[in-house]
Amino acid sequence: MAEPERYPVSDEWKKRARVDAGGYETLYGRSIADPGSFWLEQARRLDWIKRPEIAGDWSFDEADFHIEWFADGKLNVAANCIDRHLATRGDTTAIIWEPDDPKDSVRTYTYRELHREVCRFANVLKGQGVQKGDRVTIYMPMIPEAAFALLACARIGAIHSVVFGGFSPDALAGRIVDCDSAYVITADAGRRAGKMVPLKTNVDKAADQAPVLKKVIVVQATGADVTMKDGRDVWYHEAAQGVGEDCPAEAMDAEDPLFILYTSGSTGKPKGVLHTSGGYLLWTSLTHELAFDYREGDVYWCAADIGWITGHSYIVYGPLANGATVVMYEGVPNWPDSSRIWQVVDKHQVNILYTAPTALRALMADGDEPVKKTSRASLRVLGTVGEPINPEAWRWYYNVVGDGRCPIIDTWWQTETGGHMIAPLPGAHDLKPGSATRPMPGVDPQILDADGNVLTGAAQGNLVIAKSWPGQMRTVWNDHERFFQTYFSTYPGKYFTSDGARRDADGDYWITGRVDDVINVSGHRMGTAEVESALVLHESVAEAAVVGRPHEVKGQGIYAYVTLNSGVEASDDLRRTLVQWVRDEIGPIATPEAIQFAPSLPKTRSGKIMRRILRKIAEGDTSSLGDTSTLADPDVVDHLIENGVA
Ligand code: WTA
């Protein structure tokens, strides 16, 4: 293999780095050799009500399966993100909120103001009956109140479950019911790219399918006209009148749940990933500081949505635990025009920017001019997350956006891992476009072959993590057995990531993408089974099989094979209907790029759909279909090839 392109750590970065190459080796070495003392020392970065004396206590083996971190410690996550900064940073800006429309006003909150807002929100929740351990669903636009809501739950020990505002009423209802959430926090509507998202109306529709729902707290964000149901719906601004501006922070065990976040897997409905308090906060705070070389006073912008894990860990918990000034953006990257991100960077003098490859590819398509007409001189570090970054987008980010000055921090991680797992540190690691480079302290990655043998040196295979780390998820809500089966049964004693990876001769990791039936659409996970279930709910559909295929901007697009019920006529109209149907069932992120009507699907004699073949046909690569001898009816394939959708 040719020597990969390499961008060595600059002299300036060698000098200024918090952690240089030698520093990383020491840090990482200690974390693996003596995790107990390493993590107890790291735990000092948090404010504990009772300081822990034990670090990790875990086993990935079936007989003794358990994962605990700092189990004898007590703390409150919101107090760590707010209260402990008040003495030294009370007047520092915590949140700069940039609205969707650049003509609207920016809102800012100091840490002291954040304290007041979160306490007030917490008191409103209490007033509505929310107690420690209750589940609270948050279905919000990207407004400061979304962050207040998360932190208010954390303050009183309620477990939040954020549902991305782009999900449909059906998807929302499923998540409310799964975790028995009697409370929903929403807004009248959200704004995105100049359009209104009818959040409250969606909640009304979801409520019909979620009898468990008792109270809906509605933030007035846009003034949109909504119906309020007596006894169920409460305006936040009305409930907040007269509540106290202080609310004591509940003392929580380190292992008490902090939140549930639903994510797609290869089978079944989305799983409620559960994160707990102490280990998660430590992990997000440490990785935020290391990966971005975060310094006191930096203006930091993570352009994700709070509905995804990136928003939880790197808009709210990690940066606020570190006392950072966080930019929160309501809108999308390319509205009103494709210069918007760079204008926001200049407007707020952003030092650290964290975004996704799909956004970069979309902006790249509009050329360099929208970037070049802005200064961007404040930028120091550029991060990326969500999917493998193609070298072309990496170089554009580095050369055009960063003017060749800013290291690109390609962070590989998952909803399940809580925070960054493999990522370069700006002052420590030479960069290679497309490589996430090295593991974070405490992360022990291994590459295995299909039989579970550990491969050493340069190798390619399935990526597992051999040891627990503090930010690891603790269970699937209500289904501990599924947690074990999904992540620890494939390779006994190890956490299986479902990603493939390659390690090069230097020891750097390159993530190659999912090895299961999860499609990565614009950095968002979509289970093929979920889209298939949505399709077969339609009265015309007998069977569906969904695969991913490469997409220039989205990374992967959804390609659906649909077998219609007998007597139903295939037509372009029906195709459009089915696309809309899936959007209504799940949400716009599940929009199929292509639907191919297929009289029958390629199956093995035991009835298993051969997705490998369907993927090849969707990609238009029919020269190497591999072994088709196990197919029940080989003619099916010819028909599919002839009718493939370009
Ligand atoms: C993919 C997002 C390559 C990967 C934080 C993983 C990546 C899935 C990267 C998790 C990256 C995320 N390079 N692939 N830097 N970051 N992925 O749970 O396939 O939404 O398993 O978490 O995204 O997606 P999730």
From TrEMBL:
Molecular function (Gene Ontology), one example: metal ion binding
Catalytic activity: acetate + ATP + CoA = acetyl-CoA + AMP + diphosphate
GO terms for biological process, alphabetical: acetyl-CoA biosynthetic process from acetate
Domain Acetyl-coenzyme A synthetase N-terminal: 24-81
Sequence positions that bind Mg(2+): V536, H538, V541
Keywords noted in UniProt: Acetylation, ATP-binding, Ligase, Magnesium, Metal-binding, Nucleotide-binding
GO cellular component, one term: cytosol
EC number(s) reported in the record: 6.2.1.1
Pfam families listed in its UniProt record: ACAS_N, AMP-binding, AMP-binding_C
Residue ranges of every copy of the AMP-dependent synthetase/ligase domain listed in the record: 83-468
Domain of life: Bacteria
Enzyme class, spelled out: ligase
InterPro entries listed in its UniProt record: Ac_CoA_lig (IPR011904), ACAS_N (IPR032387), AMP-bd_C (IPR025110), AMP-bd_C_sf (IPR045851), AMP-binding_CS (IPR020845), AMP-dep_synth/lig_dom (IPR000873), ANL_N_sf (IPR042099)
Residue positions, PTM N6-acetyllysine: K608
Domain AMP-binding enzyme C-terminal: 530-608
Protein family per UniProt: Belongs to the ATP-dependent AMP-binding enzyme family.
Protein name: Acetyl-coenzyme A synthetase
Gene encoding the protein: acsA
